[in-house]
């Protein structure tokens, strides 16, 4: 089976063409600057790359170009769009309505439209991608795979905010969590790597430009750091993470900011960028720290400290830990962040091996010392595979 995986954003879209049974990836790519001028970056075959600058006034033209590129010319990997068996869509917010992936239907799309207030930047683009694929690839099943679904197993005492209860019943104000496909994939891989198969307690640190931590008991999420929106939790590339309401209201009064203005600061001008004053890219900030930049040093220390606090909290929530996992661009590639996070966690049974930690590999690996009572894994995430595999299982009836 060939699954076309689509992740539609507001002005961009990512895609892959994958066989979820063999895990073979035929092509991967990105359309950028949709509605401006349009750039397609397409990778296929043995590291072959193709870049096209083509006008993409809307997402429809972008998807049309992707499908044409898959079937024709230099980037061709299939003979016809009819070779595509199904389309799997990343869907950001499923609210409480979707606790698992589902076949796209008019009812599903209508429900997702009602959830737009919870994800105003993401859900409209996700819906648009579904509707365009139904038009351009008629007769093929579409499946929605939700970022929030994996976290729907959280107990109410973990997902509720201590606001008046009617704010939950009237408006659905609660913690939902995100990066669910990554947390699911990595925690599932960790369970397979552990000798212990029952009562498994896994903490996943998905660290990238957007970051979150989850506590997973026996394969089920019991808590996660992101909340109603992705701005809650860890300090991230440009997001502030946890900030007290008093600090936010005081900043608004001092800077004469509206709600929208404050959210712009919290989402786009804070985090690593806001503290370092240099970049939202941790690699550049690490270089700045090594060059003696004190604000870069502070940013790095804050990032690691934030992660460590959540790890400690989730060890308590899980009543211990069997595996601490690092994934995402930062989690997989920054040995220094892993080292700082794990420093001092010996009392929790987490002992990192410096030699193993500094050894680079694209394969899942254990970087704990032999004597560590809990394991420390670095596991490359594969969200696209989760989308493709869920699509395969739903379309073939393996998951009902």
From TrEMBL:
InterPro entries referenced in this protein's UniProt entry, alphabetically: Ac/propionate_kinase (IPR004372), Aliphatic_acid_kin_short-chain (IPR000890), Aliphatic_acid_kinase_CS (IPR023865), ATPase_NBD (IPR043129)
Protein name per UniProt: Acetate kinase
Signal sequence, start to end: none
HAMAP family in alphabetical order: Acetate_kinase
GO CC, alphabetical: cytoplasm
Active site positions: 147 (proton donor/acceptor)
Principal localisation: cytoplasm
Marked site (Transition state stabilizer) residue numbers: 179, 239
Reactions that this protein is recorded to catalyse: acetate + ATP = acetyl phosphate + ADP
EC number(s) recorded for this UniProt protein: 2.7.2.1
Pfam families the UniProt entry points to: Acetate_kinase (PF00871)
Functional note: Catalyzes the formation of acetyl phosphate from acetate and ATP. Can also catalyze the reverse reaction.
Biochemical pathway: Metabolic intermediate biosynthesis; acetyl-CoA biosynthesis; acetyl-CoA from acetate: step 1/2
GO biological process: acetate metabolic process; acetyl-CoA biosynthetic process
């Amino acid at each position: 089976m060939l699954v076309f995986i689509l992740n539609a954003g507001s002005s961009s879209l990512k895609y892959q063409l994958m066989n979820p049974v063999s895990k073979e990836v035929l092509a991967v790519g990105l359309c950028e600057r949709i509605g401006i001028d349009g750039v397609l970056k397409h990778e296929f075959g043995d590291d072959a790359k193709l870049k096209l600058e083509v006008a993409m006034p809307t997402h429809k033209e972008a998807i049309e170009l992707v499908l044409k590129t898959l079937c024709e010319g230099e980037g061709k990997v299939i003979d016809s769009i009819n070779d595509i068996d199904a389309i799997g869509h990343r869907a950001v917010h499923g609210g409480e309505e979707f606790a698992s992936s589902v076949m796209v239907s008019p009812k599903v799309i209508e429900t997702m439209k009602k959830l737009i207030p919870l994800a105003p930047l993401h859900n409209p683009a996700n819906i648009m991608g579904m509707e365009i694929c139904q038009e351009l690839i008629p007769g093929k099943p579409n499946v929605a795979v939700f970022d929030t679904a994996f976290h729907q197993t959280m107990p109410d005492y973990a997902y509720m905010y201590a606001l008046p209860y009617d704010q939950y019943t009237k408006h659905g104000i609660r913690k939902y969590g995100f990066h669910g496909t990554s947390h699911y994939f990595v925690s599932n891989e960790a369970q397979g790597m552990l000798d212990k198969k029952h009562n498994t307690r896994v903490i996943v640190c998905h660290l990238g430009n957007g970051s979150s931590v989850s506590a997973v008991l026996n394969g089920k999420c019991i808590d996660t750091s992101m909340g109603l929106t992705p701005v809650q939790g860890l300090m991230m590339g440009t997001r502030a993470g946890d900030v007290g309401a008093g600090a936010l209201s005081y900043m608004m009064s001092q800077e004469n900011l509206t709600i929208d203005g404050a959210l712009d600061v919290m989402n786009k001008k804070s985090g690593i960028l806001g503290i370092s004053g240099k970049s939202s890219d941790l690699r550049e900030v690490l270089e700045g720290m090594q060059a003696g930049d004190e604000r870069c040093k502070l940013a790095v220390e804050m990032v690691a400290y934030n992660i460590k606090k959540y790890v400690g909290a989730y060890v308590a929530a899980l009543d211990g830990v069997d595996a601490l996992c690092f994934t995402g661009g930062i989690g997989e590639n920054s040995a220094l962040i892993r080292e700082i996070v794990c420093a001092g966690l010996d009392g929790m049974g987490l002992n990192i091996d410096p030699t193993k930690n500094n050894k680079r590999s694209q394969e899942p690996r254990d970087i704990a010392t032999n004597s560590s009572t809990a394991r420390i894994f670095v596991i490359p995430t594969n969200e696209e595979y989760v989308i493709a595999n869920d699509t395969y299982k739903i379309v073939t009836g393996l998951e009902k």
